[in-house]
Design a protein that fits this description.
single chain; mainly alpha; Arc Repressor Mutant, subunit A
Length: 113
């Protein structure tokens, strides 16, 4: 077996392995779509929405478990609340600012001598 792939084949393989990320709004709309079309199977809905059947079924299950029948995540689903999302953003901003300050201090010490 040969492991010599063309650049195009490597690109196709790497593109196929990337995980799609969906917004909370898309997830909620997808679940609403399933409920709005009771004549269609989950597989048919998933094909129409271009998502995986298991993904759509999980969103539906999570929405059903939630009292408001909403998909219970914010953004990409990694944060439990808006406050946590904002906290993470501020921590990232602080880290970036501290890193920039360290670089500037180093540049000043180099240029000052």
């Amino acid at each position: 077996m040969s492991w010599n792939y063309t650049i195009y084949e490597r690109k196709q393989r790497s593109m196929a392995n990337k995980k799609k990320q969906f917004t909370a709004e898309f997830k909620q709309n997808a679940v609403d779509y399933v409920y709005a079309h009771p004549d269609m199977t989950v597989q048919q809905c998933a094909d129409h929405l271009e998502v995986g059947k298991s993904t759509l079924a999980r969103w539906k299950r999570e929405a059903k478990a939630n009292p408001n029948h909403e998909v219970p995540f914010v953004g990409s689903g990694h944060y439990s609340s808006e406050a946590e999302k904002e906290n993470i953003r501020l921590q990232r901003e602080l880290r970036d600012t501290q890193e920039a300050l360290k670089i500037l201090k180093k540049a000043i010490s180099i240029l000052g001598n």
